[in-house]
Amino acid sequence: MRLSIVTGVVLALSLGGVVRAQKWERLGPEGGMVVSLGAGPGNEIYLGTADGHVFASKDRAGSWEIRGRVGVRLDAVVTRIVVDPRDRNRLFASVWYQQPGAGGGVFKSEDRGQKWKLVGLEGEAVRALEIAPSNADELVAGSRGGVFLSPDGGRTWGRISPEGDEELKNVDSLAIDPRDAGVIYAGTYHLPWLTRDSGKHWKSVIAGIIDDSDIMSLRLDASNPQRVYMSACSGIYRSENQGEEWTKLQGIPYAARRTQVIVQDAGNAKTLYAGTTEGLWVTRDGGESWTRTTSKDWDVNSVVVLDEKNGSPGRVVLGTEGRGIQISDDAGANFTESNRGFTHVVVKQLIADQRSPERLLAVIQRSALEILESRDDGKTWASVALNAVEQSKPTTLNVEQVQEVAASPWGWLLRLENGQLWMWDESKQLWKEWKLQLTLAVHSGTKSSAAKSVKKEVARQLAADATIAFSQNEALVSTTEGLLRCQESGRCTRVKAYGHGGKVRAVWMSATGREMGVVAEGKLGLSSDGGETAEWRDLPVSGEQTSWLDITESSSGSTVYLGTGEGIYSSVSSGAWKKVAGGLPAGAAGRWLRGPEVLVASELDGGLYISRDNGASWKRSDDDAERGIFTGLVKTQSGGVLAGSQSEGLLRLERDRAGKTGE
């Protein structure tokens, strides 16, 4: 269930100037999910993410910089990055889109990852990509639909697996013999396959494999290409005769069976690294024995081994699910974090304290869910303790059960999956349950009996996708008992004008609590007497498409803003609805921030737009490097904007020297 938070106090922040395309600063936190790694000549390393972004390192993974985005979509999973061995400026990337049925393709960059263009297999969800070691013009790609080959550096592509084959599809891994580009291995969801004539004929190579299973990685031995290593759901296998027969290698337990990548140390052929869902495993005897050298809770997606330098072992670089980049300079025995410049953390929510706007709260996802607090306008962050007291006994809240955070007039508020609400007690440095209680009049059934008052606990009876808004000293909460007006004590009363139920899509309440707005049952109800009465009017779209509601007062009357799946609508003094345009796209509305001099709006599919003329005209503020799904917008004390992104972490846009935040 989702707790949508729209507060008149928080939104009515002055940004102190216009915010337009200017300087975005990545604040972190550092790290994030790494999908793929690729190394080129000179040991420059490239990093692919799950939203199309490519980062690069010029100093052997010591630091990182963002280079560009593969395509324009925000759901492009960059599964592989390969560098042309003849031209370090030329990169190829395989991509699949997270949207079901959207496909993907193969992309090429001629400037080391800054700009990309689609060069083939549009519509194919491409999961694997290799350049033939003996012929750099030949590329082989594996997709959901099969195996494809380009003989001319990606300019043209042709299918080399049988079309419509029910077995040779859903390709997850590829390998090409370094001596003969016609010898190609393909790993599918089901079996490993081999062709010796560039795809004219294929055969499954399964002798010795225990179970049919997903073939996640294929690796040819650098010293002997007859020897092939393969990872499957049933374990790691080795073949000494090009896959004619496989031997299962012992040592990695069944629990770590999802070995997502196998990489060989080019300087020591008997040393191999296996990145699994339970850490990194290393063998130094060609696979006869294995040792885990990292923590069990590391999820390793990609491994690169760099060349030796000054007589030292090659640096081992790991790309992980939530811990970013980890490096080792002792052949994988020990690892240290190396995420400087790589900020790609999921920020699930970002909010500002009503009472002290320099205090911020962020919910982020790295290797696990975390709640961080800043007391200096986002400059530094610290973990929030989840110590609590329940029924006079100390306990600890489970961060994984936190559904939403809110900034109430009395302190931070957490909503858990079970419907509990917890409020932060600053004086005691503890979370205390905020129990909502509704006073009901109960009659005995006789005419002479007086009504008795009883309190009904409603804290765990919040409506599905419950919505809450705050005034300076009250909360407006949608529950299964209807829309309630609640005090800090938890005492609640029904809001008369909004009945006893119905699906509430959005709520708004002014700082004084006198003015209210509610979207429910496909209508908008406006009240100016604290909810005693309400005037109902039609919406410009269906109620199900409404995501937020905001209302502002001015000398010309009240203006209602409505965020919907078709864009943002406004209405002045209960007049006709108008779609906000003037440069603002008509896509689904995302986050919203309003100040007396500026409006800030994000699109649900990416893009941040600014208006300084009450919405008459808008300008794009973020470049492609910052474009993502924004999950929170707050004003900084210096007059800029701090944005939480679902992929880019925390971003800050500051004012220029002229006192504005962009031109």
Mean pLDDT over all positions: 88
Q: Quick one: overall form? A: elongated
- Please give the alpha-carbon distance between the first and last residues: 40 Å
Mind describing the biggest β-sheet?
A: 7 strands, mixed
Radius of gyration: 29 Å
Superfamily (CATH H level) name of the largest domain:
YVTN repeat-like/Quinoprotein amine dehydrogenase
- Topology-level CATH name of the largest domain: Methylamine Dehydrogenase, Chain H
User: How many distinct helices?
Assistant: 1
The level 1 CATH classification of the largest domain is Mainly Beta
Global structural class: mainly beta
- Proper CATH architecture of the largest domain: 7 Propeller
Q: Strands across the major sheet, in which order? A: 1-45-46-47-48-43-44
What's the total count of β strands? 63
Contiguous low-pLDDT stretches (5 residues minimum) are 1-21
The number of domains: 2
β-strand amount: over 45%
- How much helicity do the residues have? under 10%
Quickly describe the structure.
The chain has 663 residues and is mainly β. It has 1 helix and 63 strands.
Please describe the structure with a list of short key phrases separated by commas or semicolons:
Methylamine Dehydrogenase, Chain H; seven-stranded mixed sheet; 663 residues; six-stranded mixed sheet; 1% helix; 2 domains
